Structure formats: C-alpha cells, structure tokens
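User: Some background: our group keeps a shared notebook of sequences we're curious about, and every so often someone picks one and asks for a predicted structure to add to the entry. Today it's my turn. The entry only has the sequence so far, pasted here. Could you supply the structure so I can complete it?
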Amino acid sequence: MASDPRVSKPRLPKAYTDEQLIFLRSHISGFETRTRGHVRGDAKKFALDRANEFLVRFGMPEDLQGIDEAEPRFREQIYNWYKNTVGRARRKLEGRTRSKKPAEKVSGSPGHNSLTWSPNLETPTTVSYAQNDIVAQTASSSSQQQQQSQQHVPPPPPTGHIQFSFQANVSVPSAATLALKASPNALREAFFTRGIDVTTLSSLIQSYVLSHPSPTPLNPIIDALFAAVTTSLNAPTASRTASNHDTIITILRRFTEACGYFPATLVHAGVSGPVAGPRALQMAIRKSSVWYPVLTPASGTTMSDEMERIAADRQKRKDYIQWAQIHGAALELGLLSFRGDYASTAESLSELMARDAVWEADEVEWVAGIFVLQSLIRTGSLARKHEYEQLLSTYEGRWKEIKDEARQALVTEVLLSAQQDLAHMDEGRVQ
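Assistant: Of course. Here's the predicted structure to add to the notebook entry:
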C-alpha cells in the first residue's frame, strides 16, 4: 500500500540512537553538494569517511556486531542511505515544480503516471510513490525504451516527456532541514552539534514554532536549550575540551545567532523578530530564579514514595544551579539587557538574586547566587568594586556552612575565580 511521500522516512536500523541519527543527518548537505560536483566518486568517498567517523565516535551498531564483514556492510549502508535521502529530497522538490505546470504533462493511460525519472536517482525500494512509475513502465514497452535512451543521451529527446536537469543553479533546500524533524529532541541535539550551522538551527526553531503556535511559542525552544546544556555538562570529562562556563557560553551564542534570522512574524510575549529569543530566555531565567523545594507529604507515604521524592528534590537542586549558571552566562553576553524597555528590569533581577540568595536558609541558593555574583563582577564597573568585595566576603562565610561536598567544591572554584576577577578590575580586564 502506497504511503504519503511527505512522511516517508529514510530507512535506518532501529538500533540507531537519536544522537547517532543527528550526527548522520548533519552531514547530508555535504553529501548533496558533492553529488553535483565534477569529481567522480567524491560523494561516495565523503559518505564512507562519515561512516568511519561514526565508527570512531559511536562504535559498531548492535545490529551489525558479530557478523561477517560488518564494517564494509556498515559503510555501504551509510552510503546508500545518504544517496537515497538526497535523491528523495530532489524528487520532492521537482514534484512541487511539476505540480505548477499541468500543461506540460503528457496525457497517458488512466491511472498511470507517464513522467519518467533518471535511473540514477530512483530509490523504488524506499519511496512508496515510485510504484506508479514501475506500473507505467511495465504497462508499455515503449516507455521502457524511452527511459533507456534517456540514460545514455544527455540532451532531452523530442518527446512529450518532461526531463529535469539537476544543475548547480537548481535551488535545493538545505538537506539538514529536509531530513531533521522539528522535535524537542532534535532541537536539543542541534544546539550542540557543530555540524549543524546556525541558519539550519534557526530554520529548525522556526519550523517548530510554526507547527506549535501560542502566545509564547519559544518556551519549548528554551527547554531544549536547557536540555542541551545538561547533556553537554554531563558528558564524560575526558571527552570535553572546555569548562562548564565556556560550554554554556557557546550554546547561548549559537542560540543568539540563530535568533538573528527570526522574521518579524515570529512573536513571543509581544516581542517580535530577533529579540524574541532573548526575551524568551529572560522570562525563563526570571521564573527559575525563585527557589522552592519539593514538598514533603504530611503522612501516609511509602518508602518508595519517599525515595522518589528525594530523587526529585535532588534533580530540582541540580536544575536550579544550572539555571543560575545559564543566568550568569546570559548576563555576560548581554542577553538580559537586549532592549531598553527591559534593561533595568534584567539588571535588577540579577542584582536582587545575588544579594538576597546569600541570606536564604537553603544552601542551594547560596550556590546559585555566587554564580550570578561572579557574572555581575565580570560585567560591573570599577566604582562598585568595594560593594562586590563585601558581598563576596559574605559568600565566603556561607561556603564554610555548605554540607554537600560537591556543592562546596563547586563554590570553591567560583569563589577563587571571582576573587581573580575583582583583582583584575583595577586593570580593566575582567575576564
């Protein structure tokens, strides 16, 4: 049974994880570009190189482990997938072109499609609507002869069949945009996948917003950004080349650059265009700046319920501290004072959190407050140095009271760094 070609999916084994699929899809545009080049075999070499890179990064997929010639099979599988995906994207594009020119279509027998495709672009095993072409070809021997002649003769023959030439000037949409589905998980991966450029990331965000309209459509995007930060910070230490702060800065910069491509029709909380993204981030930071613990039920709880509550509380504390890290990074990038209407409000928010958190009863607020204070020092003026020194001294006193060793170690690192930033204030080069 034929299916709608708009929802057809590239065939990949179920054993592939979302992270692996994102990696493969991020290189489709490179493969597509090489299929239109003049170097024979360049596209296949590119695909095989990506397969090798996949093996180094993720290892052999489970469904191919333990079988004969697993690596050659895997490389060929990856090449075929790239080839089929690009071919399908081109056919979908040209299909839209043909639908606008009904006068050029050749009338055939009822129920048959008389359009022919170049054989090197067909993937009848993966594209459901290719069955119509097969029926048309088997119904008439003359149509088969025409297809064979088209394979060997580049110029269009004097027949009624429409020929399409895929030259470099044909406008083909970004392959990554065609392949990636605008879902929260895809957005999360796109934020820290270097192979996906900011224009593609912006298109992905806009696609999701269009399909999920609301007065605050960027809220899921901010959730995906937070999840991307979580994934990056939880990566094995041996595989990371940047500090936690630098990692967050990088992700926020990608978000800001992607927002630069937002059209005026994209509106979040009454703010439109490129500044809609920073506005959504500011709103999320404001909500996350208020701490409230997971409530303990009065009575009637089981041991299992209590364990779940403890786990939820622990995760909430981690998230609260991570939001404070994002808060500080956004402050340093100027994302909280992107517009005159909100500049004073954003500055007051950061100041209030840093000043108030140190006096609260829960140590998780002390940890969050010191992150924001450090960013205030980095972005503050020399005239406020003495003020910051006093506040930092108060945080040092709280450091001795922190019971959780991991949080105490985290605060130790931030305190030392903040002290260095204060020392550099006189030199005008706070880093």
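Suggested note for the entry: The mean pLDDT is 76. The chain has 17 helices and two strands.
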